[in-house]
Design goal:
With about 400 residues, the protein is an alpha+beta fold. The protein has two domains: about 160 residues, Phosphorylase Kinase, domain 1 (2-Layer Sandwich), CATH 3.30.200.20; about 190 residues, Transferase(Phosphotransferase) domain 1 (Transferase(Phosphotransferase), domain 1). About 30% of the residues lie in helices and about 10% in strands. The protein binds adenosine-5'-triphosphate and magnesium ion. Adenosine-5'-triphosphate (ATP) binds next to strand 2 and strand 4. This is non-specific serine/threonine protein kinase.
Length: about 400
């Protein structure tokens, strides 16, 4: 089974045969019915929006769309068992709300024509409709979207009640691990700015797509890093098509992650691209401060990073209180002010006061360091130069004055 395409991802071209097989598998799929509700399950993921009209509601949508997934392979369960050594525990890369992620390697031995490639295999917990919907949503979106700052979906598996996703392997794992694990070397300022830019480009691509997409689960654990610390967004299980025509928002049940979801979205369920911008602001703040968005072990006034840091973001004298002390000497005052004011804007209570992601990209671009020598986190203790920042990109970001 399997046939090679000719593109760079030649190994990941689904054949008509594969697709027909998947369609057949999908038709007979038993969907467990268990309605999960409320925020705060493992990893703070909330319930799927079961009333959501544009989430792939049934397998019919998927079957129609699957013809568009020209670069995605339909794997058999046996093939994925083979490459993960029957999902051996020492192949585990991590665990999230969806299930466990394993490392694997595909090549000609797995299927004739497959290009040799390390992959990450995510195995859905068999715990209900939510997981199944997220799996479908992910295949639907990632199967069609391609961008350097989105993780590539190599393939999927749908056999009986098994649901798996196969992604390109991201050598350095998640930003969350790099930013918050005490055992890893602190990321340097320039690496943090580079990651912020890459992630912003990924979101901007989604928001500016012909049919705009709202990502809805932007957080450090969903930003994966390749060997060069290039950021790619993963986990499209909660993504939604943006408002269309005259619509100002899409109405959904509240989904996402505590500490990252925009306040108006949590209050009303009204979702816009600006909700993603808020979540981006939270991640930028985490990058700048080295602190988690929510941490109950901190003093009560500091538990919520946004509540604690936001008032200081527009006060030059107070920036020093919030910027990660491990970044000492690596950035210019001006660059830190630009980055902090960008975070401040993204975190505006009023969604309309937040910049567009394309403005965020423009603002971050001048904050990138030009020397390659400073990109490695290991160089953080011996900075070779200090990054500067050109004036705040005006774009559509309203005039903003920092308190002096
Ligand atoms: N493509 C990949 N390459 C390398 N490691 C990966 C890949 N995808 C996931 N991982 C690892 O697996 C971990 C778990 O990922 P997963 O997306 O399942 O959960 P999460 O992001 O931590 O939580 P959530 O379910 O809320 O998204 C990640 O933190 C990362 O370390
Ligand atoms: Mg994730």
């Amino acid at each position: 089974m399997g046939n090679c395409g000719t593109r760079e991802e030649s190994a990941i071209v689904a054949t008509a045969h594969n697709q027909a097989q998947v369609q057949q598998q999908l038709q007979v799929l038993p969907v467990p019915t268990r309605n999960l509700s409320g925020l705060g399950r493992k990893h703070s993921r909330s319930t799927s929006d079961l009333s959501d009209p544009s989430t792939p509601r049934n397998l019919e949508d998927f079957r129609k769309n699957s013809l568009l997934y020209t670069h995605v392979i339909a794997f058999t369960l046996f093939e994925l068992e083979t490459i993960t050594k029957s999902f051996r525990s020492d192949y585990i890369l991590g665990e999230g709300g969806f299930g466990t992620v394993y490392k694997g390697y595909i090549d000609e031995n797995v299927r004739v024509g497959l290009k040799s490639l390390p992959v990450a295999v995510k195995v859905l917990n068999k715990e209900g409709l939510q997981g199944h919907r997220e799996w479908l949503t992910e295949v639907n979106f990632l199967g069609q979207l391609r961008h350097p700052n989105l993780v590539k979906l190599i393939g999927y598996c749908c056999e009986d009640d098994h649901r798996l996703l196969v992604y390109e392997f991201m050598f350095r794992g998640s930003l969350e691990n790099h930013l918050f694990r005490k055992t890893t070397a602190p990321l340097s300022w320039s690496t943090r700015m580079m990651i912020a830019l890459g992630a912003a480009k990924g979101l901007a691509f989604l928001h500016n797509a012909e049919r705009p997409v709202i990502y809805r689960d932007f957080k450090t654990s969903n930003i994966l890093l390749d060997s060069d610390y290039m950021a790619k967004l993963s986990d499209f299980g909660l993504a939604r098509p943006g408002p269309q025509g005259d619509e100002t928002h899409v109405s959904t049940r509240v989904m996402g992650t505590y500490g990252y979801a925009a306040p108006e979205y949590v209050m009303t369920g009204h979702l816009t691209a600006r909700s993603d911008v808020y979540s981006f602001g939270v991640v930028l703040l985490e990058l700048l401060t080295g602190r988690k968005s929510v941490d109950k072990t901190r003093p009560s006034k500091e538990v919520s990073l946004v509540d604690w840091a936001r008032p200081k973001l527009n006060d030059k004298r107070k920036l020093i209180q919030i910027i990660d002390p491990r970044l000492e000497n690596q950035y210019s005052v001006r660059a830190s002010q630009k980055a902090c004011s960008l975070a401040y804007y993204c975190l505006s209570q009023n969604p309309k006061a937040r910049p567009l992601m394309s403005d965020v990209v423009e603002t971050l671009e001048p904050l990138q360091c030009t020397s390659g020598s400073e990109v490695s986190p290991s160089s953080s203790s011996t900075p070779t130069f200090i990054c500067s920042g050109s004036p705040f990109v005006s774009g559509r970001i309203p005039g903003y004055r920092m308190q002096t």
